[in-house]
Amino acid sequence: MMTLIHLRSATTSLVARTDGDALPVVLHWGSRLPDGVGEDELVAAIRQVVTHSSSDEPMSRRLLPLGVDGWRLRPALAGSAADGTRFAPRFRTTRVDSDETTLRVEAQDPDAGLAVVLTQVIHPDGLLEMATEVRNSGETAYRLDACEASVPIPMEAVEILDLTGRWCGERAPQRLPLGMGTWIRECRHGRTGHDAPLALCVGDPGFGFRHGRVWALHLMWSGDSRLYAERSPVGRAQLGAGELLAAGEVVLDPGATYTAPPVLAAYSDRGLDGISAAFHGYVRARASHPRTPRPVLLNTWEAVYFDHRLDVLTALADRAADAGIERFVLDDGWFGSRRNDSRGLGDWVVSEEVWPDGLTPLIDHVRSRGMDFGIWVEPEMANPDSDLVRAHPEWVLHVPGREPMLWRRQRVIDLADSDCFAHILERLDTLLSDYAIAFVKWDHNRDLVDAAHDGRPAVRAQTLAAYALFDELRRRHPGVDFETCASGGGRVDLGILARTDRLWASDTIDALERQRINLWTSLVVPPELIGSHIGGPHTHTTGRNASFAMRAASAVFWHMGVEWNVSSLTDGELVMLRTAIEWHKAHRSLLHSGDVVRIDTPDRPLIVHGVVAGDRSEAVFSVARLRTEVVEGGGHLRLDGLDPAASYAVSPAFLGEVPSTQQLSWPEWVAHPGTRISGAVLMTMGLALPNLHPEQAILIHLRRD
């Protein structure tokens, strides 16, 4: 007996049907179908013809597509026994459970000695979460080479958008046509990587932020990964993702189970902003998502680097408090022999040389000024010149018989070693127990090269051990916020963000670079989890000088921070900084809960993004000019996401400094703040812009009556 299965949210549907004892056939993933749709009409609408030089029945796309079923695109599962057998399982369903949001299928192949559990869940904002478990039910070991999840997409989805990048240049978008064949993105860094795609998006030709159909995938995993999009002349196309396994990395003993990292799929008929809405809704609904206002923080790194003197740091804390900062974070250099980046990493004991009385005097001073205290650690790495490595060279991740490659004068420690794991856990637990620490900046400053545990590939084991370390520390210290940093944005994914409260999107604080980096990070990650700081006028990573208006505009939408030697500020600079921080605090409930709106400006050097309240009562937009252009005057910009029936008071938001322009007069809404304009006009005719100088930004605030 065949049964129609229809998972649905307000915007999306996954439709499948049972097929005897074979795995269910997927009929549709994408736009929401009516509740009353029937199996006969669906099959009649989409059943493909039988062509020459093909199987005698139309190709079926099953929940776990495999070559044994005639599937000629990438299969979801690959592996075999040591002798090459058990390579082509044909699974038979033993149980199917479903309701309007969840499908769970159990299946097995006794001859191949394999069993699978497939779970599909549609979340309220439309995100599809796919989970796969593979169990070795046979009597001999089974080597698993790949276990991936995928969704069908229509053949007319012919344009790819994904992200790439480098250190200090993360999340750069790239577009290309999806022809016949496979586009594969593989990340082999042992961490997510600065060049990670974040989300692999495929859609209608020319899709943008606010228009076009788009299908997208994200892998919730912080190790090696594979994402792919493919179209085939057989008339099928799909998006897929999974953990990238090294040869022999996963060998399942009899009775053992492999649980694949979850794959998240999103569909939108309103461009990339609809994709973001699905991801943001999913992330914000998680129990672990921060529910309190995100404190404005000061990080000491670019202020003092390794100069850890109590008088220097207390003066910095005083000035930070005067600016309205709420959290003071002590960066690298507080522990062991760590006076520079060549030694001491791994020795998580407060340095008696630098802090003879411990960290308490600094922490007490910081807290007396109304701020809480945070600290930097890098628990997964160690310098060869450290007490840890000298005492336990066997705790370094390495292939037996050879020295592992140095990277930033660091080695990776083997967290899969139970003794090593216990030692690091004890050191960090002691640190968080002994001191009033509210925030941990957790860094990860190198790729994993030659990563092996007990002579076997170990990226997976290392990633799971890092997860376990985060999880246990959070269990023991539930009031502590954790930030993920990996030489900036080298470990940005929803796997690590399930265990952290903030991500450091890039090591560059260059305001111009951060306009792009933050914008594209928010494709998947909501603004309140993206750390972005106001730096000093000169950025050492790019050599660029930037106005305060631009630097502030690039920080206030996100989890705002400051990375600037504020003790050296003039009184005027302090007033500007305090003004920007006060504005952020006054608006962060909107900025950190509203709908992200991004405006396409394909022929102009502008980045335009904003946040609109869920009830459309208020909005803030940022307009940043990146360089000069041929257009004379600011032109007009259509804003989106507003209530067309509402009247809005439109005003500029100057964050302590008026941006520089080339003009004789301001637009009406700037010259007369509070000018009333209807949402319909703003969304159709648009708003006149000032003629900003290059590398300048202005904020637009709208409030409904």
Kindly summarize this structure in a few lines.
This protein is α+β, with helices and mostly antiparallel strands and 705 residues long.
Give the secondary structure arrangement, pairings included.
Layout: E1 4-8, E2 12-19, E3 22-31, H1 39-46, E4 77-81, E5 92-98, E6 102-109, E7 114-122, E8 128-136, E9 142-153, E10 159-164, E11 172-177, E12 181-187, E13 200-203, E14 214-219, E15 225-232, E16 236-243, E17 250-252, E18 257-259, E19 263-268, H2 272-285, E20 297-299, H3 301-304, H4 310-323, E21 327-330, H5 360-368, E22 372-377, E23 381-382, H6 387-391, E24 411-412, H7 418-434, E25 439-442, E26 452-453, E27 456-457, H8 459-476, E28 481-484, E29 502-504, H9 511-521, E30 530-535, H10 548-553, E31 559-563, H11 571-591, E32 595-599, E33 606-612, E34 618-625, E35 636-637, E36 647-653, H12 668-671, E37 675-678, H13 679-684, E38 687-688, E39 696-704
Parallel strand pairs: 20-21, 20-31, 21-22, 22-25, 25-28, 28-29, 29-30, 30-31
Antiparallel strand pairs: 1-2, 2-3, 4-9, 5-6, 6-7, 7-8, 8-18, 8-19, 9-16, 9-17, 10-11, 10-13, 12-15, 13-14, 14-19, 15-16, 23-24, 26-27, 32-33, 33-34, 34-39, 35-38, 36-37, 36-39
